[in-house]
TrEMBL record:
This is Penicillin-binding protein. The keyword Hydrolase applies. PANTHER family: PEPTIDOGLYCAN D,D-TRANSPEPTIDASE, PEPTIDOGLYCAN D,D-TRANSPEPTIDASE FTSI. SMART domains: PASTA. Keywords: Carboxypeptidase, Hydrolase, Membrane, Protease. InterPro entries: Beta-lactam/transpept, Beta-lactam/transpept-like, PASTA_dom, PBP_dimer, PBP_dimer_sf, PCN-bd_Tpept. Residues 603-662 form the PASTA domain. It is found in: Membrane.
Length: 664
C-alpha cells in the first residue's frame, strides 16, 4: 500500500517537472522570438507609441531656362511651431504673438489651448517676421526650416513652368509633368508622447531632419525670347482690343520650343488670385479653326501627291463658286490664279478646287501625317488633340471647307509644328520643352534629343511651298505686315470665325499668322494668334505685325546674320513706279448657307482716306491697323502716291494702295 502511494507520488512529481520544463521552453522560445527575431519591428512599434513624426515640406529642384537662368527655385524659410506644455502663460503669450503672426488674440489663444501639445503657428514666413517672433524669446515657441517655391521672373513663362500647391506637389505645367523628378524627399520633426499619447517635447538630439532637394530641370525655353514673345503678344492683344492671344517660337529643325506665350498671364507666386481661364495654357489646351493657314498643308499635300504643279492655273470664278448646294465666296473677285497666287491672295475657291483634285482620302491621310487630330506629345499636361473627323464622316461640302481650314480644329502648337515640316525639309518633329535633367552637382542624369516622328513631304516639295509662302509676305500678299527687314520670310495669314452654339458667330473671329525665317535656312518657326480682335479680323493686320516684331528681335538676339543678297538687291534697286493692281491685302471669303472662314464685314465704314504722303512704311501700317484698312504696300522708303485720294470716303472693302520710293 505504501509502495503504491510512493509510486504515485513519484509519477506526480515527474509530471509537474515535465510541465515546468514545457512552460520554460515555451517561455524561452517566445522571448527569443520577441527579443531577437522580431526585435526591429517591435522597437518601431514601441517608438510609434511614444513618438510623433511631423512631416516637413520637401525641397524641389530648380527649373532653369536653356541659359541656366532660374525660372523656379526653392528657398528655405522659417516655420513657427509651439509646444503648449512648455508655455507658462498661454493668454499672455498669445497676445504677444497674435499681431506678429496675423491672428486675432482670441483666435490664437483658442488654437494653442485646443492643441495636445505640438501645433503649427505659421508655415514658411518671411525672415523679418520670423526675427520679430524670435526676439520675443518665448518658451515653447520654436522654428524649423522648410522649403518654399518661388518664381523670380513673376509672369514670364508662367503657363509653361506652372506652379505648386502647399504640400508642395506640382499642379500645372512642368512642375506637374516632372513632379516626381523635381520633388525631393520629405523631412520631419520628432516629438515625444506621454503614456496618454500627449505630445510633451521635442526628442533631445533628434529634433528632425530637413527634406532633401530634388533634381533640376533645364528647359529649351530661352528667357529672353520668352520675354520678347510675351511683350509683343501683349501689345498685339491690347492694341487690337482682343480677348486673348498666343505666341509660339520654335526651332523647326529640332522641335525645341524657345518661347510659349499666353495672354492674359498670371503670377505663379500668387496663382490662387486668378481664375481657371487665366491659368489655362491656351497654346496647347485651346483648339480653334485654323482658317487660311491650313492652305499651306493643302498645297504641300497636293504637290507631294503630284496632282498639281506650281504653274497650274485654277479658275477662281470671279469670286463666287457653287458646290454641293453651297456657294463659296472669295473676299475679292479673281479670275485665273496659279497655285502660288492662291496662297498669296488666299483664295478659298482656289483651295477648294485643289482639294477636289487631291480627293478626301489623300487629303485626310496627309493632314493626319502633318499631326492634325492627334496630340503632339509635348512634355506638358493638358494638351488637346484638336478635331479632324475621319474621312468616312466627310459629306458634301466638307472636302472644300476643310481644304481652307473650316470644319477642323487644331491647337497653336500643332499648326506651328506642322509649318516646321515645310521649314525643315519635310520631317514632322516631336516638340519638346525639357532639354535635360541634372543633379545639384551639375551631373546630367537624362538628356533629351530631337526626335523625328515621320517624314511627310520631300525636300523638293518643302522648298517649293516655302517659296510660295514668301509671296504671301512680299508686296501684294495678305501678310506684308509680317515682313522682317533684312530677312526673307515665308508665312501665311489666317482668319476664321469662331463657333458659337450650333453655328458661327457673326462678329467673333480668330486672327493668326504662322511662318518661318530666314527662308533659306530657317532658324525660327513662329505663330501668333489673336482671339476676338475688335479693330480688324484679318490675320495680316492683327497678327502679322506681332510676328514681325518677335522675329526681328529674336533674330537679332540669336545673332542670325541678315540675308546679304536681299540687302544688296534692295540697295541696288532703282525706284520703279508700280501701277496699282487689283489683288487684295485680305484673305479668305465665305460660304453661303454655312460657316464663314474669313474675309470682312461688308460695307463697314472706315471714314475718310488718310493722307499717307511722306510717311514711312511703319507709320502707314500703324494707321492701317488702327482704321482696319486693307492697304497694299508697294516699294520701300517714303510714301509718294496713294489710291484713293486723301479725304475720300472709304470702307474696309475698298481697294487701297500706297506706293513708296527710297528717300533721296
Amino acid at each position: 500500500m505504501i509502495e503504491k502511494r510512493e509510486k504515485w507520488a513519484r509519477v506526480r512529481m515527474r509530471f509537474v517537472a515535465l510541465l515546468f520544463a514545457i512552460v520554460f521552453v515555451a517561455t524561452t522560445g517566445r522571448a527569443f522570438y520577441l527579443q531577437v527575431l522580431n526585435n526591429d519591428r517591435l522597437v518601431k512599434l514601441a517608438e510609434k507609441q511614444h513618438q510623433r513624426i511631423v512631416a516637413l515640406t520637401p525641397a524641389r529642384g530648380t527649373i532653369y531656362d536653356r541659359t541656366n537662368a532660374p525660372f523656379a527655385v526653392s528657398i528655405e524659410m522659417d516655420s513657427c511651431y509651439a509646444e503648449t506644455r512648455n508655455m507658462d502663460n498661454i493668454p499672455q503669450e498669445a497676445a504677444q504673438l497674435a499681431p506678429l503672426l496675423g491672428y486675432s488674440v482670441q483666435e490664437l489663444e483658442a488654437k494653442l489651448k485646443g492643441a495636445k501639445n505640438f501645433v503649427w503657428l505659421a508655415r514658411r514666413i518671411p525672415p523679418e517676421q520670423a526675427q520679430k517672433v524670435k526676439a520675443l524669446g518665448l518658451e515653447g515657441v520654436g522654428f524649423v526650416k522648410e522649403s518654399k517655391r518661388f518664381y523670380p521672373n513673376s509672369q514670364v513663362a508662367a503657363h509653361v513652368v506652372g506652379f505648386t500647391g502647399v504640400d508642395p506637389g506640382g499642379l500645372e505645367g512642368v512642375e506637374k509633368k516632372y513632379d516626381a523628378t523635381i520633388l525631393g524627399n520629405t523631412g520631419f520633426l520628432v516629438t515625444e508622447r506621454d503614456a496618454l499619447g500627449r505630445d510633451i517635447a521635442l526628442k533631445e538630439g533628434s529634433e528632425g531632419k530637413s527634406g532633401s532637394k530634388g533634381n533640376n530641370v533645364v528647359l529649351t525655353l530661352d528667357k529672353n525670347v520668352q520675354y520678347i514673345a510675351e511683350k509683343e503678344l501683349t501689345n498685339a492683344v491690347v492694341k487690337n482690343g482682343a480677348k486673348a492671344g498666343i505666341a509660339i517660337v520654335m526651332e523647326p529643325d529640332t522641335g525645341r520650343v524657345l518661347a510659349m506665350a499666353n495672354y492674359p498671364s498670371f503670377n505663379p507666386n500668387s496663382f490662387a488670385d486668378y481664375g481657371q481661364a487665366t491659368l489655362r495654357n491656351r497654346a496647347i489646351a485651346d483648339s480653334f479653326e485654323p482658317g487660311s493657314t491650313f492652305k499651306i498643308f493643302l498645297v504641300a499635300s497636293a504637290l507631294e501627291a503630284g496632282v498639281i504643279r506650281s504653274g497650274d492655273m485654277f479658275n477662281c470664278e470671279n469670286g463666287s463658286y457653287r458646290m454641293y448646294g453651297r456657294t463659296i465666296h472669295d473676299t475679292h473677285k479673281y479670275g485665273a490664279l496659279s497655285v502660288p497666287q492662291i496662297l498669296k491672295y488666299s483664295s478659298n475657291i482656289g483651295a477648294a478646287k485643289i482639294g477636289s483634285r487631291l480627293g478626301p482620302e489623300r487629303l485626310y491621310a496627309a493632314l493626319t501625317g502633318f499631326g492634325f487630330g492627334e496630340k503632339s506629345s509635348i512634355d506638358l499636361p493638358g494638351e488637346a488633340s484638336g478635331m479632324l473627323r475621319p474621312q468616312s464622316k466627310w459629306y458634301g461640302i466638307d472636302l472644300a471647307t476643310i481644304s481652307f481650314g473650316q470644319g477642323v480644329t487644331a491647337t497653336a502648337l500643332q499648326i506651328t509644328n506642322a509649318v516646321s515640316v515645310v521649314a525643315n525639309g519635310g520631317n514632322l518633329m516631336k516638340p519638346y520643352l525639357v532639354d535635360r535633367i541634372v543633379d545639384d552637382n551639375g551631373v546630367v542624369l537624362q538628356q533629351f534629343a530631337p526626335q523625328v516622328k515621320r517624314r511627310i513631304i520631300s525636300p523638293e516639295t518643302a522648298k517649293s511651298v516655302a517659296r510660295m509662302l514668301e509671296g504671301v509676305v512680299v508686296e501684294g500678299g495678305t501678310g506684308t505686315g509680317a515682313a522682317v527687314e533684312g530677312y526673307r520670310v515665308a508665312g501665311k495669314t489666317g482668319t476664321a470665325q469662331k463657333v458659337e452654339g450650333r453655328g458661327y458667330s457673326a462678329s467673333k473671329r480668330t486672327a493668326s499668322f504662322v511662318g518661318f525665317v530666314p527662308l533659306e535656312k530657317p532658324r525660327l518657326a513662329i505663330m501668333v494668334v489673336v482671339d476676338e480682335p475688335t479693330t480688324s479680323s484679318y490675320g495680316g493686320v492683327v497678327a502679322a505685325p506681332a510676328f514681325s516684331a518677335i522675329a526681328q528681335q529674336t533674330l537679332c538676339y540669336l545673332n542670325v546674320p541678315p540675308d546679304k543678297s536681299l540687302l544688296a538687291r534692295k540697295k541696288g534697286a532703282a525706284p520703279e513706279k508700280v501701277a496699282p493692281k487689283p489683288e487684295p491685302a485680305a484673305e479668305g471669303g465665305s460660304v453661303e448657307g454655312g460657316s464663314v472662314e474669313g474675309g470682312s464685314v461688308q460695307g463697314l465704314e472706315a471714314g475718310a482716306m488718310p493722307n499717307f504722303r511722306g510717311m514711312s512704311m511703319r507709320q502707314v501700317l500703324k494707321v492701317m491697323e488702327k482704321r482696319g484698312l486693307n492697304v497694299k504696300l508697294q516699294g520701300s522708303g517714303r510714301a509718294v502716291e496713294q489710291n484713293p485720294a486723301p479725304g475720300s470716303r472709304i470702307t474696309t472693302q475698298d481697294q487701297v494702295w500706297v506706293r513708296f520710293v527710297p528717300s533721296a
